[in-house]
């Protein structure tokens, strides 16, 4: 792996995380009617008689990681250092550390989304490639129309329909939750229950997601199939399998990566809606909860962790890009 | 003798057009380029026609439709009248007896406003940052590309939620901009790479050699090349804003002064519309409104490529 390329990627990831932390600090500290003044006012109302000003400030510091009486730049430095050390403050409503809450729910969201992305791309790439090979056929026309239609349906609409039919009309799937209660964690029945509960959310993401990937894979493949080096490979007598796998697929998949990077962010963002519809307590569900209760420390912490999750996801995707594109290894990426 | 030589020096390439264009000619060529030719192309392409019809229909409903219809109030009709049962309530009523069709019509305008302001915001920022970055190699390009990458990576919906809760905007136009706040990254990145290749073209070099200002080169030589892509992006960003706004209104995290499709979805979902057939029409029609508008935008965006393609155009001029 090319060292400079890797360093650049890491620097970029850190820059994104830093921007997010700065943004949340600005929102907490600088906005009119900011969380700080709100919290102080509430504490003052509740404990005004028993709490001194210094004690109220200490509470604010514990929850929001911001010391209101310090100069602004010093507050910023403290906030930055605390956050980078993994201290995201305390939840205002539940009173426990934000990191503890989030460590509990994040794996569930990652589970849902990674399975969904895997299926989206496997189905999308295979379908798109076969559409390109059968260009102009009835199969191609039908799949193109279906894919276009599926792209125009937002995933939450599909989730509504799934719930209506599969949960309330036919009673095939549970309405919500992550697993049935009363099962021993780690047992086979438990894992089966986890997959059973995750099915509908994953299906709604996959069905509305693979169409767009298939359409761009189709376009890329058709373009690649028309290029001279494919003719060259055929003239050299290479086997069809080798041509389609090493020459066409590889070059047609590369442009999909920009889409994948955006898709990761889109899915983590969309998790807020998805998990609400299916009452699936993942990180998006927690973000929405925090928002509705105006639990600012939890809200900002969740936002940061979602961003970090996206950054890590994008970073991992970038590493596999380096594996597919030989130019990255030789440092010839420009 | 000296007169002629000075004039020749002033005129690059030493050639001047020998026909004067009157303003009528200008108007005629503009009408031809922007109305007649696209119209002729569109008539031959049923998908473009359908997309245009759908989008225009929604625009009509959102502007004129609101004037034609009385707003609906509680107990306008019986509770939960089914669709297509009476002429008074063609799409049925909700559990409070409000007419669903009227609710949808009145919900159109705020949604369209959000989509329009969000879409315009995205293409303005995206085009500005992308073209400037691509055209101005060096430090400025690096900084702008870095900002673009950050905007691309920060997940959109959570950012919008956090901002909406702290800033609490009310007007649909502002909410539209908020929904589009980091949606310009993809457009900017793509335009940058397009400009990188356009700037090497002969005609750009010629313009620079003639000492045309950078702003003019960007506006007159570089930008027209990218219009189809920008227009395509305008449609798809409006679709993105539509999905995001309806989704976030459904979650109940955006403030509103007038009920729109997302708010209707939220009311229907929390009212239990998914549990039985008798209430299904309550949640079904807002969904249909969203999906059809989205299909219209997709069809229209797929046809933009044809509208601007010089080879297709030449056949209709």
Write structural notes for this entry.
The complex is a heterodimer of chains A (334) and B (317). Chain A has 14 helices and no strands. Chain A is mainly α. In chain A, helix 1 runs antiparallel to helix 13 (296-324) and helix 5 runs antiparallel to helix 6 (138-151). The longest helix of chain A has 38 residues, at 188-225. The model of chain A has no long low-confidence stretch (mean pLDDT 81). Chain A folds into two domains: 3-84, no CATH class; 106-324, MetI-like fold, CATH 1.10.3720.10. Chain B is an all-alpha fold. Chain B has one domain: MetI-like fold (Orthogonal Bundle). Chain B has 13 helices and no strands. The longest helix of chain B has 38 residues, at 214-251. At the A-B interface, helix 1, helix 6, helix 7, helix 11 and helix 12 of A face helix 5, helix 6, helix 10 and helix 12 of B.
What features would you highlight for this structure?
heterodimer, A: 334 residues, mainly alpha, MetI-like fold, 14 helices, B: 317 residues, 13 helices, globular, disordered N terminus
What would CATH call the class of chain B?
Mainly Alpha
Largest sheet of chain A: none
**Which of globular, elongated, flat, extended, rod-shaped describes the shape of chain A?**
globular
Identify the CATH architecture of the largest domain in chain A.
Orthogonal Bundle
* Structural class by sheet pairing and helices of chain A: mainly alpha
How big a fraction of the residues of chain A is strand?
Answer: under 5%
Rounded to the nearest angstrom, the radius of gyration of chain A is 25 Å
Which runs of chain A of at least 5 residues are low in confidence (pLDDT < 50)?
A: none
The DSSP helix count of chain A reads 14
- The amount of helix of chain B comes to over 70%
Identify the biggest protein-protein contact and residues per side. Answer: A-B, 51 and 43 residues
* Content-based structural category of chain B: mainly alpha
Oligomer: heterodimer
Topology as H/E string of chain A?
A: HHHHHHHHHHHHHH
The whole-angstrom Rg of chain B is 25 Å
CATH topology of the largest domain in chain A: MetI-like fold
Compute the number of helices of chain B: 13
CATH homologous superfamily annotation of the largest domain in chain A: MetI-like
Shape of chain B: globular
Give the CA-CA distance, first to last residue of chain B. Answer: 45 Å
Number of strands of chain A: 0
